[in-house]
## 1
Amino acid sequence: MTDSTAADATLAPTKPSTKPARPHFSSGPCAKPPGYDPAKLATDVLGRSHRSKLGKQRLQYCIDLMRELLNLPDTHRIGIVPGSDTGAFEMAMWTMLGARPVTALAWESFGEGWVTDAVKQLKIDPTVIRADYGQLPDLQQIDWSNDVLFTWNGTTSGVRVPNGDFIPDDREGLSFADATSGVFAYDLPWDKIDVATFSWQKVLGGEGAHGVLILGPRAVERLESYTPAWPLPKVFRLVSKGKLAEGVFKGETINTPSMLAVEDAIWALQWAKGLGKGGLIARSDANAAALDKLVADRDWLGHLAVDEASRSKTSVCLTVAGADEAFIKRFAALLEKEDAAYDVAGYRDAPAGLRIWCGATVDTADIEALGPWLDWAYATAKAG
């Protein structure tokens, strides 16, 4: 443990003796699943066309695994699309917005990004309901005759919606959930979600560049009944001759995917299947609880999201007493130099602080081992 007097910088802080076995705490791309080894990936499809029989089989298998693990109802389509979660959410916005008024919720950087795109790119005038970093806006203000854009779990603020109860069953508009840090970590109510997007790089610890788009029946109806006023790039086109391009949701991707990234995702999904969705949620919950204990034991650490009901259990954002951006950079650099923790500085647009990924691919023992290293880095950065 760290010398108890080190935090006031009167003595040189002592380095802890035990490091996290896997010091990967980045919030994206996130830690690989335990036991991961690139040599374990299937490689028969590499060098083959993604449109070959084998290529389409592997893409469909990846989709089938995601559907099974998410308990996704047959009413919902699931497709692999370009551009990571950002590309998937942009695709949904560009193809479906404009039919109704729009409400956008923004309490962190990605929510603000969707507001910017709606206003400056699509030239629509959304109603914007904002909250500061660490807080959740008043969900009762939402007019559900509008289409509604929101992040299920704010990766850069550590704030999430508590559940889907704020989404009415009789909504007239569509619910668009950027769920990239929430899928596989929470039990999502698919009857409440018309559009969901995520990427493999979060809770699965997969690779970037590919997004996943989930469409409920009301979203499909919108696509087939509404044509946007703006032109659509080829990679956004989900409709052909007035009907949904069903092939996109059967492994026939719009553009060429990385089959290596697909195999990487398949490996992660097979690992996750061994745990089940409940097991994934339990691992994330245990990690978040372990980090909560670290915070409770240190008066210089706090949660950016004060309300526990809306606090993320994956991308947990922490405040550091007296810290500014320069201090956090020193703090994170010290940990990385010692191979004790990688990529723990908060997001660049967020208040200065730390961000610790607690998703299912992280081991709870590594969260617990992180505590003394946080003490050491804090004391060392203060002394410096």
## 2
Amino acid sequence: MIKIEVIYLQLKHFVHQLLLVLVFVIPAAAQDISVSPITLTFEGLAGQTVSRNVKMTNSSKTKTYSFTSSLSDWDRDSTGNRQYHPNGSMAQSMSNWIEVSENNFELGPGESKNLTISCAVPHKLASKSAYNSMLFLTQTNPSKSDNADQSGIGILVAYEFGIQVFYNPLGTSLGDMEINAMIYTGPTGTMRNGQVQLAFANTGQINKTGTVRLEITNKITGAEIKTEPAYFAIMPQGKQRLNLPLSEQLLPGSYLLVAILDAGRGHSLKIAEKDLVIK
């Protein structure tokens, strides 16, 4: 069986290369199962139990899908990729607080189901920083792929959806975002136009998401290069490095390099500037 591990169209970092090939073969539009939302944030007093709903929909007209739920601890590495750890092994784990209304269930053709996710907040918390877990909804009745190759070898496909779960304690510090470094690297064999690496940090106690974009201006001609916004997600007190490939190669000259980091509502734009000379 080959499993499509869909963290809403993002693959977990340890998925095998064979799986990567399969996912490109099966387009997103062909997926029968949808899940919403993909992030749950709980807020409540110590000792309270709070609940949220997750909706799953089966758009297939003929297939019935069976699912089971499980939980895992997780964090992010220095480049923002998810890392998974045993349930309850991390200091900020909330895996043992979570209950799902149905741990094993089916979705018939055209059926939708609301799962109630309950979070029992402990009476005493070790810290005021955000807690987190990952809720997995994994298909248990894999089906034969419609994209099986001409050799006749059947490929069994199973979906796995990951839902990020957070709890923000009362009084959690929003904090801020900081840009710590910006480094330009010229063209290489794998990076034809060069790239800019941005190092940044989350000083707050909650998870943050946002975008980073670049503006590069030739100081003599005034010509500008602007990159498309690149998405980031960073854990509380986290530090990351984000590589931003350039859309075109910089010719010899003098440039002003500007990075703009936007963490959304409640945060001011963070702007870093650097003079750059290409010889």
## 3
Amino acid sequence: MNHDAFIVQPGSKISLKKDYNTAFTANFQEKEDAKLKLERDIERLAKYQDILYAQNTYALLVIFQAMDAAGKDSTIKHVMSGVNPQGCQVFSFKQPSSEELDHDYLWRSFKALPERGRIGIFNRSYYEEVLVARVHPELLEKQQLPEYVKANNIWKQRFKEINNFEKYLVDNGIIVLKFFLNVSKEEQKRRFMRRIELPEKNWKFSASDVKERGFWDKYMHVYEDAFRHTSTQWAPWYIIPADRKWFTRMAVADIICSKLKELKLKYPTVTEEHKQDILKAKDILEAEE
């Protein structure tokens, strides 16, 4: 699948409403066709992850950002369903703890980075610090920052810091994939209503979700600005249509598989010495009665 339509070109000024169709499904008109492709990609991803783990050279960091009810949890659940749990780790970044607030805003993300050979998933991420903190500037007061930091165009400074951080990761073999699941305001309302009306989904609903919905336009603005300043050649943003969950999952899986394929992963080469050790071990096992 061609991914160009999803990528935010570095430095480009975009409009999520005008430039990205939340109901886009590419050439997939039938849900079942997309599900079949997803199943194939889940198998591909499992194989790539196995080689990634064995090679132990690269790591993959997958970041998900979205408005509430866009489908982050279900996308992670479906796309990663075939991956060996030993080679994958998921972190959900909630409201910072008192310990985390006593450190810089990237500290908790550094701690959660995937090891070589593994896939790390950030369900929300350090991007909250240029999104939620910008919509709710009172959150900055809890970060105990020096006054000159807050006064010196803090958002521009953080964009620069994030870009440098991601460049550092990529330069050290940690590939960064960033997905924004782009759900429409109308579809979000429908999903909220479903969570309210179905008892088995009540647990997923929070009154704060509706409160945040009141800041929709502000969130769209800060997201667009963040994409403009942090979509780079080494870590571009992918805007994934999220009104049709079946397409969202399929698109994310396809992009992850394509990125892993680009790495030209290979199982480690067995040395001649190791081969001899294997043969000796075989002889010992065969000699057992």
